[in-house]
Specification:
With 134 residues, the protein is of the alpha+beta class. The chain has 4 helices and 8 strands, in the order E-E-H-E-H-H-H-E-E-E-E-E.
Length: 134
């Protein structure tokens, strides 16, 4: 996991958009964003049990699996939104970015790779995109 301030430069959402200013994981924690590296699904299962999660789904975000709908889906995921419940995401394969709104109304970009798990609190504005390798 790597977190930093989003550079706000116009361009493909799947680029790094790294401002060069890192964001400490402690700051993410203050926003309610929790991160953990989980090398096995058993660790994810344990966290889900501890937090009393009842629902689970798996989505494969790739041009091969989504076909012609891929580009539209990636754009849809990148629309800023929030949820009434916390959201947990575990990266089984590949890489991607979660952007979360800070208390100063700026975007923090969080790069996640295989084995990374993120928990977003209820009510935090966020968005998701794959990286440029799709």
């Amino acid at each position: 996991m790597k977190s930093y301030w989003f550079d706000n430069i116009v361009g493909d959402q799947r680029e790094d958009h790294d401002s060069g200013q890192s964001v400490d994981p402690e700051y993410l924690s203050k926003l309610g964003v929790l991160y953990r590296h989980c090398p096995s699904i058993e660790i994810v299962d344990s966290i889900a049990s501890e937090r009393s999660y009842k629902n689970r789904d798996e989505i494969i975000v790739s041009p091969e699996k989504m076909g012609p709908a891929y580009e539209d889906k990636v754009k849809m995921f990148f629309n800023e939104h929030l949820h009434e419940d916390e959201e947990i995401r575990y990266i089984l394969d590949g890489e991607g970015f979660f952007d979360v709104r800070s208390t100063e109304d700026e975007w923090v970009r969080i790069r996640l790779v295989q084995g990374d798990l993120i928990i977003l609190p209820a009510g935090i504005y966020h968005r998701f995109t794959t990286d440029n390798s799709n």
